[in-house]
Specification:
Number of helices: 8
CATH topology of the largest domain: Nucleotidyltransferase, domain 5
Structural class: alpha/beta
EC number: 3.1.26.4
Order of helices and strands: EEHEHEHEEEHEHHEHEH
CATH class of the largest domain: Alpha Beta
Helix content: 25-40%
Subunit structure: Monomer.
Function: Endonuclease that specifically degrades the RNA of RNA-DNA hybrids.
Cofactor: Mg(2+)
Number of strands: 10
Strand content: 25-35%
Enzyme class: hydrolase
Shape: globular
Number of domains: 2
Length: 253
């Protein structure tokens, strides 16, 4: 039986739900309830955010995408999105170019589950660090999707998101060339794009601004800086138990 995803715009707790009983609990006997089913998670998330014509208005705190750009999600929207797993990614480079590292924070049912850091490169860039973090998030997402869990990835690099979800398709069509010069980080982009192509029907990569109060983004940021400080080349998990306040007190990027 095909999985359906449900958007609740008006109900006890608006959001995106992956099963009917959870949806019914939000709308049953709720005055003026407004909801609808969708075939894929990205369609449902787009509808909930207001990017589908005729749905809810965008929050005034959310920046609308420029033409051919991407939407930026507010902290409230990140919190309201319903998904089993939320993965936050970030990359850091001190200076840029210079020593680079990547970080990732994974939440399960909106509770911190694990933190990851590594991929230290003494001659990296901020963009390569962001791409590396996104690559690791997609690798982890592939594992989680196989367990029938819904996954959303949040990244604060528009460059990384657009490379993989928009620009790479045209670059591939043109023989991995672009007008106006070389494609930087090409090998990495090709590897990420290949993986993204297998997952894009079941996952969405969303943009958040850095340092605006999104806890997962802040934790991923600290992990990327920790990777640089530790010069950690492998991508490894941060020791449990996780003390969020102590980690947030670490150097930020």
């Amino acid at each position: 039986m095909a999985t359906k995803f449900y958007v609740v715009w008006q109900g006890r707790k608006p959001g995106v739900y992956q099963d009917w009983p959870s949806t019914l609990a939000q709308v049953d006997k709720f005055p003026g309830a407004k909801y609808k089913s969708f075939k894929t998670l990205p369609e449902a998330q787009a509808a909930f955010s207001g990017s589908v014509s005729g749905t809810a208005k965008r929050s005034s705190k959310t920046k609308a995408p420029a033409k051919n750009g991407i939407k930026t999600y507010s902290a409230d929207e990140v919190s309201n999105l319903q998904a089993d797993i939320k993965i936050f990614t970030d990359g850091a480079c001190e200076p840029n170019p210079g020593q680079a590292g990547s970080g990732m924070a994974i939440y399960r049912n909106d509770e911190i589950h694990s933190l990851w850091y590594g991929l230290y490169n003494p001659q990296g860039t901020n963009n390569s660090a962001e791409l590396n973090a996104l690559h690791q998030a997609l690798i982890k997402a592939q594992e989680l999707l196989a367990l029938q869990l819904s996954v959303v990835i949040f990244c604060d690099s528009k460059y990384a998101i657009q490379c993989i979800t928009q620009w790479a398709q045209n670059w591939q069509r043109n023989g991995w060339k672009k007008s106006g010069g070389e494609i930087k980080n090409l090998d990495l982009i090709q590897a990420i794009f290949k993986l993204y192509q297998t997952l894009k029907g079941d996952i969405q990569i969303l943009h958040v601004n850095g340092h605006v109060g999104v806890e997962g983004n802040e934790l991923a940021d600290r992990m990327s800086m920790y990777a640089v400080a530790q010069q950690q080349t492998d991508f490894t998990d941060y020791p449990q138990p996780i003390n969020i306040q102590s980690i947030l007190a670490m150097q930020n990027g």
